[in-house]
Amino acid sequence: MCVFVYTVDNETEPAVDRRPMRFTEVYLGDVGVDDFRRNARGELGTRTATLHAAGIKRLRENWVYRDAL
Fold first, then answer.
1. Where are the alpha helices (DSSP H) in 1-69?
2. Which of 7, 15, 66, 67 has minimal CB crowding within 10 Å?
3. Which residues 6+ apart lie within 8 Å of 35 measured at CB?
4. How far is it, in rounded angstroms, from Cα 69 to Cα 24?
5. pTM of the entire structure?
6. Are residues 31 and 60 in contact, defined by beta-carbon separation less than 8 angstroms?
7. Backbone phi, then psi, for 53, in 5-degree steps?
8. How confident is the model over 3-54, as pLDDT tens digits?
9. Which positions ≥6 away from 40 have C-beta within 8 Å?
10. Neighbours of 59 (CB within 10 A)
11. Domain assignments of the chain as residue spans, ordered by start
């Protein structure tokens, strides 16, 4: 799994003066089925799966980039 975390300035006006999007973290880790928890169907009938706490911890241990700020 590859996760990109970023910040976006969507408040400064006019929009032309906004700061550029900036990546703050990048993670790349090998996760398996056991690293996920299953969530019930939502109102639209879509099932989702989310990493559970231990899976997130494992993924975050495999960081590629973390902003020093």
1. 53-60
2. 15
3. 51, 52, 54, 55, 58, 59
4. 8
5. 0.74
6. no
7. -55, -45
8. 999 999 999 999 999 999 999 999 999 988 889 887 777 677 677 778 999 9
9. 47
10. 19
11. 2-66
